[in-house]
Amino acid sequence: MEYTLHNGGGGLCCRGCSRQDKQLNTYDWLADIPGNPDQCDLVEVQFKNTRKGYYRNSNGLTLEKGDVVAVESTPGHDIGVVTLTGRLVTLQIKKANIRSENDIKRVYRKAKPVDMEKYNEAKAREHETMIRSRQIALDLNLNMKIGDVEYQGDGNKAIFYYIADDRVDFRQLIKVLADAFHVRIEMKQIGARQEAGRIGGIGPCGRELCCATWMTSFISVSTSAARYQDISLNPQKLAGQCAKLKCCLNYEIDCYVEAQKRLPAKEVELETKDGTFYFFKADILTNQITYSTDKNVPANLVTIGGRRAFEVISLNKRGIKPDALNEEVRRTAPPKPVDLVEQESLTRFDHSKRKKKKNKNRPANAEAAPAGGNNPQQAAGNRQGGGNNRPNNKWRGPKKPPRNEKNNG
User: Fold this and answer.
1) By mean pLDDT, which of 181-195, 308-322, 371-385 is the weakest?
2) Domain at 120-190, CATH class
3) Rounded to whole angstroms, how far apart are CA atoms 26 and 45?
């Protein structure tokens, strides 16, 4: 099946789309090229949540996107879904910084019904295992939180994802978990942002969390990003659902830094004949600065542009004080917003269209019969401006005032 693009040559192949699972989404834009899967024997396999792996198709299996395969693991095998084939897998391996070929394991086979039964049984135990492991960690007085548990496809291994502020000695915990669940235990520490991405949620913007949809790498966020954007340092507003600073604070920081360069420093005072003005506040994106005649309280506030501020600073350096701070500033009225609703009447569909009724007594051709009918005196009166016998089915504007007697005579 292929979706044809109408804006040019080429097509959008639906085989390039894969399983839509949050930030692990991939699109193979080389899927419609003939022979692309045969160009490389490597495939990308996706597991639960945020885990992916790259495996070698050493058995020469015919694999496509969406195939469920059994891959090599330590110990036993794991079950995953093929999400990428062909030449793009090599680029993904470079992006994942996998340098050694020993890290690339093999694809055993396509999953059989027996493999899927074991896989479903193992997945059904994950939630119960997580709840019980949390109680075990609490009994051992460990300062950690187990956020998720992932069983291997064959059920011989379990990965416990946890978060902790400090270093945790979980050697005793591993022994207790192994005795309780009879599987091989692997502990993997994740951050608070990664845990929020695994759980998901809705942000204050009304959209799904970025860490749960498209973000794969997390950059540290500092309070300086809020200072550059003149955001109040309120921890309740700056913190996200992970109790850390919101990642979206870094989205517009570069734009604010560039706009800040077009404004003078806050410490600069402007001297005029009216007095000395001190910095009060600034609108960085609109390049507007508000100055006050008092350092501590807003008094005689004056708002000027960044260019005018630099002009006053240059005049002060030469010992010149302008008459006013906003002198020679052309203030143009801001453009009024266009309301599309005002362009059309909202009640234009409420009135039914009345069909025009034709006057049966009026002849079709005005020149064929006199305006007054059979009475010539009435017709003559109409031509002189009497005109009161016109049909009322058509509006012809306001009535003209009657003529004087001299004109009528």
Assistant:
1) 371-385
2) alpha beta
3) 11
